[in-house]
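We modelled the chain as a single entity of 440 amino acids. Its sequence is:
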Amino acid sequence: MNSSKPLNGRTLVSDVQGRDSFNTQLLYFTCSSLSQDDERIYLISDRDGHPNVWMRDMFHGTDRQLTYNKKGILKSYVYFDGTENEGLGKASVCLDYIRERVYYIQDDCICRTDREGHVSVLNHVPAGRMTAFTHVSLDGTKLCVPMTDGRILDFDPDTEGYGLDKRPKYNIDQRVQDEGLNSYLCVYDTESGALLYEKTIPHCWITHVQFHPLDPEIIMYNHEWSAFDCGIRRVNIYDHRKDLFYHVRTEGTDTKGNTRDHARSRNDWVCHEMWTDDGRSIIYHGGYENGPAMVGRCDIDFTNTDADGLPTRTFWEIALPDEYNAYGHFLMDHRGNLTCDGYYRMPGEKIIERENSTDNGPDPHRKDGAYITKVEPDWEKGILHWVPLCRHDSDWLGQDAHPHPIYAHAGDRIFFNSRMDRTVNVYSVSARTPQEVKVS
């Protein structure tokens, strides 16, 4: 009698009838795509010829259109070849999963819709600015729309762009530094639409923002594609009460966990930061300078300060095996378990050579990961327990085909994007560890 340990089966979540004729994807992973009870999933689909937000009732198997865009894709971060000031900002769509309100940018309008499709215009994006991924506070009262001086993406994608997404040939962050461009944290009241405040962050390119889960006066923001010092410039905090902004990760040798003797360096690569539910820690990942990939956790105590007057921070990092070099994203459930769409390598399996295996972005890792995994961290021991759940088999060709796995709120399923052929679709897989099957 032989034993085998199979993977779990993946299930198609998006519309089965149109899976080969149009694209459907999750919202960006800095927000959930699922209602609090996990019965409804909010998606971006171009089934009517233009990207729009749809709500799928997974219990009844019905779909409802929530936005009514007829102008294609708005030019913004990631969607470099979109139309300036026209279309749906695909990067802007954000769900308040408790109240089931969706926030998004249409043309130059900052909008809100509910699950019935009732649309309200809250405010407008000032002229001459580019937007990116938005975020709504957990209490539902505030919306943060990151903006940057429009000069940052002042180029013709057809003649001055390159790669799958037609990103500019110039170094974007270097333009920010050389020309003194600014980003702006614009925070709006979700009921009245009033601008509550606008914080200028100089010489910065902000594309990701996340309110502290328990304190909306604190915002975590990034500095995208840093031209230098990515190891410390990537993850930042703005404390509105104190009107103070600062880097989160510092250089040092006091990292706990298991770094395999790598110090924290400004020359490391760091990305995809996210809060834990209690707001006491920030999870991130990346790679050490000339070293392996790693996953990190920064415990941050806003009630105590260090010698510089900043919140005290403790760093935990776990270095990955050298062969775990496939670019991916780490997301977390409500219990501290991670999920990942890259890095993991099945022992003995031949690596698929994909068209974009050496991506033109700043990260040092290959876009050829093929598995959705559950990752159980033991930070004290510096160990990651990897559980492969299923193959996602996405081709990684462009942002929309990144799997970006997210847990259901109950923690029992993981949802992800995949393009296995011509179109992007959304799938789910059980988060339970695959059971051993006896084969006679």
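As a brief sanity check on the tokenised model: The radius of gyration is 21 Å. The mean pLDDT is 94.
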